[in-house]
Amino acid sequence: MTISREVAQEIIDELGGVLGQQLNFMDAKGFILASATPERVGSFHGGVAMMIREGLAELTVYRDNEYEGARMGCNLPLMMETRLVGAIGITGEPAQVRKYGQIIKKMTEILLRESDEQQRRKLESRIRTRFLDDWIMLEQNPSDPSFLRRAAAQGIDVALARRVTALRIEDITRYTDSRPGQELIDSINRWVRQALDHTEGAIFSKTASVMICLVPAQDDEGMLRFVRRLTDGVMRQFRVRLLAGVDRAEDAGRVSMHEAWTKANKALQACAARPEEQIMFYDDVTYEMFLDDIPRETKETFVSHLLRGLGRDGMREYAPLIATLYRMNGSITRTAEAHFMHKNTLQYKLNRLTSLTGRDPRALENVPLYTLALLFMKEA
User: Going edge to edge, which strands form the sheet with 83-91?
Assistant: First the structure.
């Protein structure tokens, strides 16, 4: 085990603060890695080097410089399992500090084991994350021996038919630029990850903004129940709305994980473009299927051309009205009620929009045009 100076210093600071002792942490060659006396860091401790070389259980230094670089105190070796990894030293009158020796030795060894376990878990997590990223984000050859070995090392049966759900916090950009907001995002990620622990065979992964849930194959009704448990749970716990996209049932076990993820993510993007939706299946995606294929500049040009004469403020004013009108299947009465206005007022606004743009949003031939404009504006 290689102990970093940062870990050694953290241990010295923590134990020294609790016990009120001047401590030093030496590596297996006798050099001081960390110390309550900063100027000693990096110097050689001849006494500890001898203690380690001769396999002594303890070394007491009765006067300063009795050994090269040594000060009066008590020194003990540190063991990890059966390996000697360094030594801990307590500076002071031997008669006073020796009574703390075994306590500090045991506490240091416990902290070292905890640090080693923490580092091991981090490494395992990075390896698992890398595998999941490669499996989900990239096309893989399912018969490639190297890929199968990596999957087996993670305990993942890549031959098992699975469904994919992509989840994202609604209006996530509201939270990403502040510390409290980022902490909330992290808490929601942890909650969803832990919720998946109750679903046998489920796997959690994520990108910077999307949570990815892989679950054993089931029909759309089962997936809807599964997703609603997550979205409802997050709403209860955090008062935050999640949006979800789900892949195709027919694809489970037939297409690659990358293709299934791509479809789930496409459904999520479509869900974000429809304010009235919270969960969408890929089979329900329509216009949104090709949105990513259209350059942003083209989208902006289309919106500006269709809604010319409105300006940005006008676009923001009319977009909710048009969206509601189409959601209400063209009903003037229900649209007016949804916006708490008289239907004559709504008719006046729609007539004015027609006059400004030259296209009546109520006319069937113009519905696709306005629908696309709403989708493009949602992405802006």
Answer: 32-35, 22-27, 83-91, 73-80, 59-61
Question: Between vectors from CA 112 to CA 110 and to CA 118, what angle results, nearest 5°?
Answer: 105
What's the mean pLDDT in 209-234?
96
Print burial letters for 60-78: b (CB count within 10 Å at least 16), e (below 16).
Answer: bbeeeeebebbbbbbbbbb
Where residue 305 falls (left for φ over 0; alpha for ψ -120 to 50; beta otherwise) is: alpha
Residues in the chain: 380
Q: For residue 254, what are the β-bridge partners?
A: none
pTM to 2 decimals?
0.70
d(CA 74, CA 32): 14
pLDDT tens digits along 102-142: 999 999 999 999 998 998 999 999 999 999 999 999 999 98
Ordered DSSP codes for 278-324:
SEEEGGG--GGGGGGGS-HHHHHHHHHHHTTTTHHHHHHHHHHHHHH
pLDDT tens digits, residue range 229-250? 999 999 999 999 999 999 999 9
Domains of the chain and any CATH numbers = 5-118 (3.30.450.40), 160-289 (3.30.70.270), 294-379 (1.10.10.2840)
Q: What order do you get walking across the sheet with 203-206 strand by strand? A: 203-206, 211-216, 162-169, 242-246, 279-281
Query: What distance in Å separates the CA atoms of residue 359 and residue 370, rounded to the nearest whole number?
Result: 9
Cβ–Cβ < 8 Å for 109, 79? yes
Residue 115 has which token pair? 């640090």
User: What letter represents residue 144's amino acid?
Assistant: D
At residue 380 the predicted structure's pLDDT band, cuts being 50, 70 and 90, is: low
